Amino acid sequence: MAKTATKAQKNSDVETAKTKGISPFNGSKVWMDGKFVDYSDANISVNSHSLHYGLGAFEGIRCYETSHGGSAVFRLKEHIDRLFNSSHILQITVPFSKEEIFNAVVELVKVNKFKECYIRPIVYIGDGGGLGIFIKEYDVKVSISAWVWGAYLGEEALKGGIRAKVSSYARFHVNTFMGMSKSTGQYINSILAKKEVVAAGYDEAIMLDTSGFVCEASGENIFIYSGGYIKTPPLSSVLPGITRDGVIEVIQNEMKIPVKEERITRDELYIADEVFLTGTAAEITPVREIDDRKIGKGKAGNVALELQDMFFKIVKGENKKYSKWLTKV
Ligand SMILES: Cc1ncc(COP(=O)(O)O)c(C=O)c1O
After folding, report:
1. CATH topology agreement for domains 25-147 and 155-318
2. Which of 75, 69, 123, 80 shows the shortest CA–CA distance to 102?
3. Is the shortest distance between the CB of 54 and ligand 1 below 6 Å?
4. N or C end of the chain, less CB within 10 A?
5. Which of 29, 141, 182, 316 does the annotation list as catalytic?
6. What gap in Å lies between CA 98 and CA 81, rounded to an integer?
7. How far is the CA of 241 from the centre of ligand 1 (A)?
């Protein structure tokens, strides 16, 4: 077992920028509570309630350069809907309409002149209500940042697959946190899991629920291809991934493989023909090894690669059938 992080972790643009001493965010504009400001002026209070207690909702969205020239944000409406759902679950009222946030995202990409970028809206609580755990009124703030962020697990990971490990940290019980909400604080669970497996020389952490069934990875949903079926765990303690949803639709429309939402056990992963992860950041990443066991032939599987190819054509606007998922910038 290798003790150092593999190339996959070191490969992201953010990592590269950091090792060169450059912040990947410098020089960009941020949308903050209705206005565009320079990144260096996009500061928040040290007594932000969210900073202390982790109550906030966020999104991760990608904008891709299309093959027809110009750029398009992938499934923007669905991401804005999830941001509002996450906030609603947390009893936070977003002080902007969905339309305002939608337009702000599009404007932000234009203002920054990005062709491709990752977009991060966040709804959080400022310092206006004090710092008690219970505060009567939330001083709700919204900001949206964008930066250039290449393949999350590295280009190599997309092509050749990654090595994953089941984390010793369980995904939270549905009554501890709520999986339908993409809430800031609950990512401590993902961070601890990811740190644990990276320290052991793996690329990504797979997380089980409190009953021991497979949930998802630290920042991706999980699928297996086995016995002629594609399976993914049902939505309990699992983020309702927008890529997951899109992949299910594409499999149903384009592949002659039945897809089921069903509980998966850890040993089912080991003997699957293929395992792959889906997410806005990680896109469609094959998994070639889990807990030191080869998955299938121990390399990226054909089903995952076929889906990945269809996915990249869709996000680049090369498949008209799915242009409904693209918002031109
Ligand atoms: C824990 C977790 N699961 C799944 C996903 C995949 O969701 P999506 O496809 O909407 O990016 C993410 C990323 O947002 C995540 O953080």
Report:
1. no
2. 80
3. no
4. N
5. 182
6. 7
7. 5
214-217 vs 204-208, strand pairing mode: antiparallel
Q: Is 182 a catalytic residue?
A: yes
Q: Is 76 in the pocket of ligand 1 (CB under 6 A)?
A: no
- Each of the 329 residues of the chain gets a pLDDT tens digit; together they read 333 444 444 445 555 555 566 688 889 999 999 999 999 999 999 999 999 999 999 999 999 999 999 999 999 999 999 999 999 999 999 999 999 999 999 999 999 999 999 999 999 999 999 999 999 999 999 999 999 998 888 889 999 999 999 999 999 999 999 999 999 999 999 999 999 999 999 999 999 999 999 999 999 999 999 999 999 999 987 999 999 999 999 999 999 899 999 999 999 999 999 999 999 999 999 999 999 999 999 999 999 999 999 999 999 999 999 999 999 99
State the architecture of 155-318 in CATH terms. Answer: Alpha-Beta Barrel (3.20)
Q: How far is ligand 1, taken at its centre, from the CA of residue 272, in Å? A: 22
The domain defined by 25-147 folds into D-amino Acid Aminotransferase; Chain A, domain 1 (3.30.470)
Cα(196)–Cα(5) distance, integer angstroms: 11
Phi, then psi, of 286 in degrees rounded to 5: -70, 150
Domain ranges in the chain are 25-147, 155-318
SS3 state at 213: coil
C-alpha to C-alpha distance for 280 and 220, rounded to whole angstroms: 8
Ligand 1, atom nearest to 82 Cα: 10
216 Cα: distance to centroid of ligand 1 (angstroms): 9
